[in-house]
Amino acid sequence: MSFQKLDDLGRRLEALEHALAILGADEATHMAVGGGDKRAEAMSNLAGMYHAQATAPEIRDWIEAAKASELTPDQALAVAEFERSYVNATCLPTEFVERRTATTMRSEQLWRDLRAKGDWDSFLPALEGVVALAREEAQLRADALGLAPYDALMDQFDPGNRTADIDGVFADLKSFLKGFVPEALAVQEERRAKTPRKDLNGPYPIEKQRELGLAAMRAVGFDFTHGSLAVSHHPFCGGVPTDVRMTTRYRTDQFLPSLMGVLHETGHALYEQGLPKEWSHWPLGKARGMGLHESQSLFVEMQLSRSPEFWEFMLPLVHQHLGEDAIPGWDIADILNEVNHVERGYIRVDADEVTYPLHVILRYELEQELIAGTLEASQIPEAWDAKMTEYLGISTINNPKDGPMQDVHWPAGSFGYFPSYTLGAMIAAQQWAAMERALPNATDMVRQGDFSAINQWRADNIWREASRLSTPDLITKATGEPLNADHFKAHLKRRYGRI
Amino acid sequence: MSFQKLDDLGRRLEALEHALAILGADEATHMAVGGGDKRAEAMSNLAGMYHAQATAPEIRDWIEAAKASELTPDQALAVAEFERSYVNATCLPTEFVERRTATTMRSEQLWRDLRAKGDWDSFLPALEGVVALAREEAQLRADALGLAPYDALMDQFDPGNRTADIDGVFADLKSFLKGFVPEALAVQEERRAKTPRKDLNGPYPIEKQRELGLAAMRAVGFDFTHGSLAVSHHPFCGGVPTDVRMTTRYRTDQFLPSLMGVLHETGHALYEQGLPKEWSHWPLGKARGMGLHESQSLFVEMQLSRSPEFWEFMLPLVHQHLGEDAIPGWDIADILNEVNHVERGYIRVDADEVTYPLHVILRYELEQELIAGTLEASQIPEAWDAKMTEYLGISTINNPKDGPMQDVHWPAGSFGYFPSYTLGAMIAAQQWAAMERALPNATDMVRQGDFSAINQWRADNIWREASRLSTPDLITKATGEPLNADHFKAHLKRRYGRI
Question: CB distance from B274 to chain A under 8 Å?
Fold first, then answer.
């Protein structure tokens, strides 16, 4: 009876989530330009209804009554996740939420303006306000969850993630990468000496690129009866599991950026499409967390799509859709030359898979200090520069635009999210290794463009688990070992290292 | 204070309407095929939230308190329309609504199956159930509104419409058409003898037809910053006033059906885009009713787009978009030959503007008898056949599929809606006449493809009025005279009659 109340609540919340997800995707793809104000007003109202319904005081009673009643094992898990959602949604006082919304909105708007100018000094007071709020929020969440403050922030994005576990893994990876980045760059230079980068032969018409992208999606297992591909300024994977809205963007002088982006988003889409449909209205039925989600996109993008085996079946598709002379004289090595290019750079979102983790670890380390109060916002530029210089050998001291002002996360008040990106990369590599033990000829399957057994393994071990386990427990169960950097390091060495 | 509560309610309801409108349009245009079940579940839940919020008992108190408070004239009108919506939404007991939903859903499903087979006998018991419900609903609405039962049904679709006013207008029109249809057919035969129908020269590629449709929409005033055109199986005009979602469908062997459909839907779109934006969250800010809405689409389709003047600027656009040899040898007379073809037929939705009203008047007459209890469902086939034979000279007695089984309205429990179609045609003609008195050179404007003054007149006199007046009062205010058939008859005589 009480469980039924939670079940009904789940269906109402799912309806509002459905509306918000589709309205959000529609806004970026098909909305008329003048429809934005009313769309924003409608979505804000719907989000308000969602919040009011998700945080109603009687839900606490339903949860307690349900916990005291006879439940199937799945129902018991469902109630636990209802409770987790409820605690996370209600642990911040309304007064605080309103203050946070006002502060972060102002800060984010200011950032959009000042970032372009690289004007750190004018931005600093706003960021100081956001950091103060983030510390307050971390403490509020910590009190409600019985966790350390920074752990309580991370727990929103990947339940179960703790600095006690991650610190060591990141330290290991960082120590490896500090030595490995120079090696990868040296190896790349030697390869380039033998195989110089070849010219593209565009323009590549958008309609043909679209067909190529659809063919790639189809090949890796995207279910077009439950999703579609459109165009938007910023690519995303949105919508709902029964109707995944993926987007990409095209430039006619190049086709690889769009294609690799499509493959990345397809990884997210496969996870959503593979979630257990019968639980879609329960928190238990949702994807586990951001690190896991990123691991699914990086599995497709990094483990599969940037491998030489993948291009054995993909290269003919490129010729089929873009024409025989689309990339004259290119072989698989030339494609890999292009898509696996390594470079020390300032910007995280432009980084390759070798240097990317160093961008993340830098932020993870600074975030922890910011939340702990051992670093102040005013000290960020120097701390950032010191770490960039140490990890990547480049200085940002006179370039805040491409340093601590480059990401929206902190201006928007989002702390504890950054680690998910690199956790995803490590989980993806660890997942491939576990899968290959179960499917010893997985590499041949990739070579043949046959992903059915690979996807079946992932569906059984990850997608259908949804939110039954914490992120660390799901990793351990799916891969047979706790999260560690070994498989990712081995992957980088195989792909970029001296053989 | 109480008005503010109604205003806030209006914003919440507008958000849910927005979601339902965009989700509905999206379902027909961009949704993945497998997304239907969850979409239906989400929309049903959102509709439930809408109903719960729109019928909350405290709204009655807010309305009474608002009426007793100081209000601006606009606020007073707004409260009156809030009350009208509230009474219409609450006058049926929940028990009845549930019974009606179950009955009409079963009946409509049965109809979809049995209509194709023309199996009237198997369908009759379901229809008898629906008719019984419709009588019950009419009485419930009549009691709540203080109206006669059939008037109470019509009042949902066009507030203020009464059989006492419409009966005479329809009788006049019917009497005219019984004589005029043979005349129009004879004139058509004579014209065809001189100007035989010419061949089309397709195929007409969809992308080119789309560009032609967009050019036509742009010409007659569609605002593409607040709307768009897509493809769906059944064309419609949906979405919200700030983001109107219009659709069409294409066949490559013909271009006129899609083009004329686009022009019809553009008429609906202009009305929505022309509503007062500041009132969009009040019932007062909505389009007045179905007859008025149809009058706006028929104004563009019938008054403007099927006129010889319209084709003076449109024919060059056809050549521009479809090619110089798209319709070889066609002149304006050939286009009119095609788009103004008259024919006695069985099917309402396929009828031309001369015969269409007779299809509607037949249904209007039978509906009134069905609701009054002077006609039983079992007697429909004979009554239908008698009227079809009298009005159009064709019998449906052995053809229920193309007779009383052709429309979804009755199987779905919708009575009182049919008259709107022909009211719309008459209002459109009356509107043109009034507008031409204000803009004596309106015909020249059409000839030049300049609709700005025409649209401005309509915006001032109809669109911006929204729901300030009842349908009959709006007609009288906008056109200077009560609804009558004279202008429509004159229009038909000019276009189809012996000169």
Answer: no
A17 counts as catalytic: no
What's the domain count of chain A? 2
Q: Does B7 touch chain A (CB under 8 A)?
A: no
A280 contacts in chain B (CB < 8 Å):
38
**A30: nearest CA in chain B?**
B228
Q: From CA B493, how far away is CA B487, in angstroms rounded? A: 10
Q: Is residue B299 part of a domain?
A: no
Asked whether the beta carbons of residue B223 and residue A14 sit closer than 8 angstroms, the reply is no
Question: Residue A162 has what pLDDT?
Answer: 98
Specify the DSSP class assigned to residue A251. B
What mean pLDDT, rounded, does chain B reach? 97
Widest CA span in chain B: 71
Bond preceding residue B276 cis, omega within 30 of 0: no
The Cα A63–Cα A69 span in angstroms is 10
Q: Is the ipTM of this complex over 0.90?
A: yes
How far is the alpha carbon of B87 from chain A, nearest alpha carbon, in Å?
25
Cβ neighbours of B326 (radius 10 Å): 18
What's the pLDDT at B60?
Answer: 97
Pairing label, strands B237-240, B243-248:
antiparallel
Distance, in Å, from the CA atom of B480 to the CA atom of A344, rounded to the nearest integer, reads 76
- A residues 36..75 contacting B (CB < 8 A): 37-39, 41-46, 49
| Domain span including residue A122 | 2-157
Structure tokens at A13: 């919340």
Question: Helices (H), strands (E): how many in chain A?
Answer: 20, 3
How far is the alpha carbon of A33 from chain B, nearest alpha carbon, in Å?
A: 5
Cα A268-A272-A274 angle, rounded to 5 deg: 115
Q: Do B42 and A227 touch (CB under 8 A)?
A: no
Tell whether A164 and A269 lie within a shared domain. yes
Per-residue pLDDT band for A40 (boundaries 50, 70, 90) equals: very high
Out of A140, A157, A174, pick the residue that ends a domain: A157
- The contacts of residue A387 (CB under 8 Å, 6+ apart) are A362, A365, A366
**Closest CA relative to residue B318, chosen from B309, B328, B308:** B328
User: What are A341-352's pLDDT values in tens digits?
Assistant: 999 999 999 999
> What are the chain A neighbours of B30 within 8 Å (beta carbons)?
26, 29-30, 228, 230
- DSSP-assigned letters across all residues of B90-152: HSS-HHHHHHHHHHHHHHHHHHHHHHHHT-HHHHHHHHHHHHHHHHHHHHHHHHHHTS-HHHH
Same domain membership, residue A91 and residue A168:
no
* A123 and A177 in a common domain: no
